[in-house]
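task queued by scheduler; priority normal; single chain, no ligands, no partner chains; default sampling; output format set to structure tokens
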Amino acid sequence: MDAFIVPIIIVFISFLILFLLGKRNEVKVQKEWDRLYELTGANSFARVKHCVDSKVMAIDLAYGEANELKQLGSMQEALKLLDVGCNIITEFTPSMYRLIATMMRFSRMVIAITPVKPLKPGNFKITQLASLALLNVVINQFLISMKDRFKLKLYIIGKGIYMAGSYLVKSTKTLIGSKGEEEKDWQRINDLLSDYKELSRETMACLQLIHDSISLDQAYIK
């Protein structure tokens, strides 16, 4: 139980520190506002979405085909595809983390056009990630501002992406090292992949919210 409680406490304290620093740095963030317009402009937003969707699809395809080849008895080919998927995740996860970090910097400037809903614990299969989502639900109740709730959600998603990506790479390498003999390792990878895709979907939903908010702000200014 302590193995799950300690990381949750660390994330909770880290967010409080980040929240307080965000209050102090809001003037500095205002000066960088124009940079977010570049990220969420119609063309840029479409490019980012296409890139994320393509990478997630490639990862899903690699792991999905690996599962099918395993069922057909072609274990060596299955392991090769797992290695391909693992490499994509290794390259892709840092990019997702940077995207979330960028959104975090500007989250306080977002117009809350819709209520920010926390992650749903029931959407996650891995205990640690479900616990993070539960933390999002709990802290969300104590925040009044929709902007702060949005910032919290991004922070939790960022931690989740980092954890899911790391666990997925580690579990894949473990499975490849064992020659794919352990069925429980295959199931864990499938669960992690499901959670990784859920976090990626939530990331793009947050970027969509920023895009829509800025579009509304621009329309209001005009």
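post-processing summary
- DSSP finds eight helices and no strands in the chain.
- The two ends are 55 Å apart (CA to CA).
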